[in-house]
Amino acid sequence: GNQIITSYELKNRVKTILVLNNKELNQENVDRTKNQALNFLINFKLKKEEKNKYKIVVNNSAVSDHLLNIASNYNTDKNGLKAIFENNDLSYELFLDGIQTEFAWQQLIFNFYQDKINLNENEIDEQLNEIVTKQKQAEEYNLAEIEIILGNNIENEKKIKEIKNQINEIGFKNTAIKYSTSLSSLEGGNLGWIASQALSSTILSNIKEMKPGDISQPIFQSETAIFIKLLDKRKININDINLEKMKKKIVNQKKNELLNLFANSYLSKIKNTTLIQYNE
Description:
With about 280 residues, the protein is α+β, with helices and mostly antiparallel strands.
């Protein structure tokens, strides 16, 4: 588009990824991280352009809470997190801009598509009533996800291999923060407790036999692939369930799935209609 990714931004992003994940700053790690950092910056510039175009106001409270969450991973507060950047000669301002832009992007997607999220609440009521009348227990799953946008077959194989390698090296949560295009990426991919009725049949069939700590193979959808980690699962006695509360959770989960779908589709659209030129 009309924005530039400078060599400084790319070097800073590569180094930020390595430092925050406690990886050694050597040529091998730099080479492995470069493409990932570049893809992040391309998406960041596109999202920021949309944020500025539609004058989206950032929710500073949400940004502050997220920074506290990140800082807690390093046993410090926001000032301590900022000191990590300063001590490693990294730009905290660029890091903060990235987070602010992602929150603005989420708000933009919600503004655009909230009226297109149509759920059949009667069907959800029927599902809940069936649980009450036919079952003694309901199942809930505590999940995390990593979602990537698919390209051509060769690119997809490389992306999936890299995701698996990163999960092994730095863990699922850090890989979600670095790679996932889902709106949950800001929370390390965490989705929280989800009732089985809120999950698509494809995802449910993949996780039903998994044990806590297991990670699924990539689950392919129309434009994305999703890795699911089962953090925990539990059965709840029907008598102990607040049906209104469970219904609200199911509705929110289905809305979030639709918003992710809209977000990925919108990002792909602006990528395909924007000139992205590489200069050495």
